[in-house]
Design a protein that fits this description.
The structure is a single chain. The protein is α+β, with helices and mostly antiparallel strands. It folds into three domains: about 50 residues, no CATH class; about 280 residues, Aminopeptidase (3-Layer(aba) Sandwich); about 120 residues, Alpha-Beta Plaits (2-Layer Sandwich), CATH 3.30.70. It contains twelve helices and 19 strands. Strands 1, 2, 3, 6, 7, 8, 15, 16 and 17 form a nine-stranded mixed β-sheet that branches. Helix 3 packs antiparallel against helix 12. The two termini are about 40 Å apart.
Length: about 450
Amino acid sequence: MIKIKFQYQKTPNLKPQNHKNMQKLHSYKQVILILVMLLGNLYIVAQETPNPVDKKYVRQINKLTKNKHIQKSFETIKALEPETHNDLIELTEIPAPPFMEAVRAQAFAQKLRNAQIDSLWIDTEGNVIGLLKGTERKNVVALNAHLDTVFPEGTDVRVRVSNDTLYAPGIGDDTRGLAMLITVLKTLKKQQIQPKDDILFIATVGEEGLGDLRGVKALFSPSGPKIDSWISIDGGALGRVNNKGLGSYRYRVTYAGPGGHSWGAFGLVNPHHALGTAIDRFVTAADKYTSEGPKTSYNVGVINGGTSINSVPFSSSMLIDIRSVEPKRLDAMEALLKTATQEALDLQNARKRRGADLELIFEKIGNRPSGELSSELPLIQKAMAATQYFGKTPELTRGSTDANIPISLGIPAVTVGRGGTGGKAHSLDEWWYNDNGHEAIQFVLLLLLAQAGI
């Protein structure tokens, strides 16, 4: 506890009857009050933000790093940098649009085979799963990166190099993660390190966009493999410790009608007119709702429909993304969207002068659950302690990643950064620079073995 003692002394020659002296006295009092407030805030911050890493996990990580096999593994990871670089470029240049990850999956699977994985299979959803057997086999630790990118079929994914910076769609999110998985496996095999627990090296499908986490959802379904803890590698620098899942709902809303000529069929219901009304009413209500309370966002991202300027469209649709840190607020936003779209339908049908009614098709096409794991959980503590070992300050974050599913189920899970320096994710100009990128691989190996045992 920090104690602060103030001593007040009378200021000489400040007589109350003198107006200027009174102003000076008032100014001194204001300065003292401001200092008290500022120091009080510093006290509050110091009390509310203690060191979050338990010393026992710091000792565990430090002890592990002194193991000669770990030290040699760190050297091996640096020596493998050229191979990691080549793996990154090769996999990046294999397109993996949403729902079209199969070719990249086969290439990644072959790299695991070449690295002498104990056994390997591709499940019915398309996930690549490689098993490294442990000596005790009591638990199963999963190490994950995702195969898919946000980019559609036909995107030029060739890697461009400029001053040691790599440019390509998807090179950081998340192809770098895939390359890291391969290097971790190579290192474990080269150093003949056998973990106590089984380790699954998993490359998932469906992490991006409308994939709706279909790959990881399949893994944690009743038919999926046993997984006791989960470590994902995704975007971000070394220091990211994502223990909170950002939930989201996604929708496709479609208005369908008979369609016709803009003059000859005038008076028919118009899907575009209904869609415009729905957007206006939803945004008005959503703006008011999200202006207070836990952070919640909404976005109309895609609008489709119509054939020509002089045709009443047959259909009009939109894709909507809603996110919140609080699950109940997602349900509240869904209710606002349903009300707005139904009101727009009723209004358009009431305005028609001829023909059939307009039809509303409301589809929920995405459901990413939210959740939060305590920072005191051993896996999270190990991740923070390992981060500190590499001289970085761990940052507990919230995100939408494959880890959302195990987090929502209460299974120990974390998403960590792919290291290096990068930017412009989800754009055609995405880039990544190998700024001590090997440290992120060393960190992942250290965290993995801290969890799986050695």
